[in-house]
Amino acid sequence: MRNRIGDRLRGDTELNDLPAHALLNIINVPGKAFASPWQLILRRFLYAMILLAIVSVLAYVDKDGYTEHLTFIDAVYYAAVSMSTTGYGDITPVTQQARLINIIIITPLRIAFLILLVGTTLSVLTEESRRTLQIQRWRKSLRNHTVVIGYGTKGRSAVAALLADGTPASQIVVVDSDPRALEMASNQGLATVHGTATKSDVLKLAGVTRARAVVVAPNLDDTAVLVTLSVREIAPSAMIVASVRESENMHLLRQSGADSVVISSETAGRLLGLATVTPSVVEMMEDLLSPDEGFSIAERIVGEDEVGANPRHLADIVLGVVRSGELYRIDAPEAEIVEPGDRLLYVRRVFG
């Protein structure tokens, strides 16, 4: 049954097989942006002057190979009229002064004219070539990253937590079908893929098959189930963390392959209820869930000097012990002694 669902989710065209230049409107990889168009024009002008200087030196070195014995000004003049495609006409400057004026004033103006005339076309072609090469390199180097599917409120919060916890922006890929959401993600320096995450070819473009973890955070529960099915089918070893609004749909996500499920509506409801009775508890919970200030819940490997100790007696406030992928609360018998290879779930102080 799962295979039949997967077949229906696939499109007729595998986006993953398309060349990089065909993905310019689908994948956006953040890169260095120039301050203004004037900076681009100035750079092109400087490149043209460098080429002009090189040709001038070459012509002067071979000054005896021309119809007349060239001075250095003659060589620069020859390079200028040749590189600017002016050619030789019936009116040519013959005195040194006239040729110097041609070099200093007329030729730069001619080059500036060519830049303004074809600069826009060249800029578009250059930018598309640069982005095509950038996408090719990005797809080849993408490994052990985190894919966030859905950049709504939950997706943005998940990305904020990842960034605050030290995950580089280059290791996060956002998948969404809303251009405005993708623009917000791109402004944060994140790579984005435009498309519906229920399609396996879109997931492959985001590198799900090589991802370390996948965060499934769409707005609808049925979409979350379909996305989880698709992700688990093409990425059997990836960790899938999914969000669901209603607890009654939690088992569907588990059956679809989610490793962890967060019930967003019930969690928010509990906090609302606590806020009416003990608002300080809610304030502390929000502090623990905000990794960029105050306190936060973190995980770390045990130190060599901590092996064999009781986690209650360590310097950190330990909440649980993770052993072989299984979490044991601090009051569990399995968490009485810290063993080699364990990871500690503890309260970390975040310095602003």
What key attributes describe this structure?
352 residues; alpha/beta; Rossmann fold; Alpha-Beta Plaits; 4-stranded antiparallel sheet; 11 helices; 47% helix; disordered N terminus
How many domain modules?
Answer: 3
- Strand fraction equals 15-25%
At the first level of CATH, the class of the largest domain is Alpha Beta
What is the overall silhouette? elongated
CATH architecture of the largest domain: 3-Layer(aba) Sandwich
Structural class: alpha/beta
The strand count comes to 11
- Largest beta-sheet characterization: 7 strands, mixed
Account of the 3D structure:
Keywords: Membrane, Transmembrane, Transmembrane helix. Residues 143-263 form the RCK N-terminal domain. It comes from Corynebacterium epidermidicanis. The protein is of the alpha/beta class. It has 3 domains: 2-30 and 142-266, 3-Layer(aba) Sandwich (Rossmann fold); 37-140, no CATH class; 293-350, Regulator of K+ conductance, C-terminal domain (Alpha-Beta Plaits). The chain is built from 11 helices and 11 strands. The strands form 2 sheets. It has a 7-stranded mixed β-sheet with strand order 1-4-3-2-5-6-7, sandwiched between helices.
Write the layout of secondary structure elements.
Layout: H1 2-9, E1 27-28, H2 37-61, H3 72-83, H4 96-141, E2 146-149, H5 153-164, E3 172-176, H6 179-187, E4 191-194, H7 200-205, E5 213-216, H8 221-234, E6 239-244, H9 250-256, E7 260-263, H10 264-277, H11 279-289, E8 294-301, E9 317-323, E10 326-329, E11 343-350
Helix pairs in contact: 2-3, 2-4, 3-4, 10-11
